[in-house]
User: Fold this.
Amino acid sequence: MRRLIVPTLVAGLAAVIAVPGAAAHATGTTGRAGTANTTGTAGATSVTRAADVAGAADVVDDVGDLGEAARAGQWQLGTLRLPEAWRVSKGAGVVVAVLDTGVNAHHPDLRGAVIEGPDLTGTGDQPWGPHGTAMASLIAGRGHGDGSGIMGVAPAATVLSVRVTLENGDPRRGRQLSGWRDALAKGIRYAADHGADVISMSLGGGSGAWEGYAAEEEAVQHAISKGAVLVASSGNDGATANRKNFPAAYPGVIAVGAVDRRMKVARFSNKQDYVSVVAPGTQIVTADAGTSYVVGDGTSSAAAMVAGIAALIRSAHPAMSPYHVRRAIELGTGRRPSGGYSPAYGHGVVDALLALRMADRLAVPVTAMAGPGPYFGDGPVPATRAPVVGGMLMLMAVMSARVVLRRRGRRRDVT
Assistant:
């Protein structure tokens, strides 16, 4: 459940107010091409504006105080070692496409960070929603003022908003609208063709999408061929059906599960052999679609953070391939499971600083190893060696002449 936060504690930490009857929206998994249902299990969230809570209207406009509480609640900043990672990279020059419900570019923490892309849902209404805005804030939130507001993993990156789905609570999600089937595939292609370095997809599953969709898989491969790094949430029904979830399960996509503050895999996080890594995904503070903040759980948030780490790497190493970015993230993990991999943890809990260090290693060109190699015989004589070789030939000729003369002299003595 996604809940309103208000600044109440002396230390400035966020207190959580649960709001019954709030409308659900996409978190760890929104539907394929914007039509499928999100997972309604643990980890699915609801969103409520601060103004909707009685007595909280005076808090909504006090963005400064609320922003301080939001920053104080970002426990993942230390877990991911972001302050240290930011000394190396903040994601400058990188475009992260957020394929979601749309991003509110007017939120105080996202001003100047968002490029509005197309709305592929065909609804023609407000081009942003709570979920898309929340994910964008986790990727490229810049905060505001001094120590206030949401800081994303890559605060210097730029978000390209591509709307491919609607919020869970939108009644139109239950109807199949023309063109929605291919919305995600079109969104992936649009992002790749318009310069996205990273494509973040905190969505998937439902409405027959559990087996994947050819147009989407082809779009994924197209994006990878263009050099884009693709990241997706693993799914939120790990405690129940634990279904295979797309786009996370497509080859080449970095699938992300969720862990709690104790670095334990969240019950709702899907456990599948396509899971690549896990990241913080419980009690995550994010921006909402207005000017306020909410708290929620889900693999959506975890995926957005990993997309941010990919942006940090791409900023430090612009030419690095999607494969090597993925390997840097997987090899740069902490709390690696026994044996190096498990369907629950993937390769381990992401660490932004370790991932950047691993990227530095992977970016070093491989030099030829010392030691004997294949034998190809003598090569041509370099011009600089010609005088030496000529002298050696002359010496050999003189020595040969002396040998001949000695032999002739010996023969004359005998006769």
Observations:
- DSSP finds eleven helices and 17 strands in the chain.
- Confidence is low (pLDDT under 50) at residues 3-62, 367-382, 403-415.
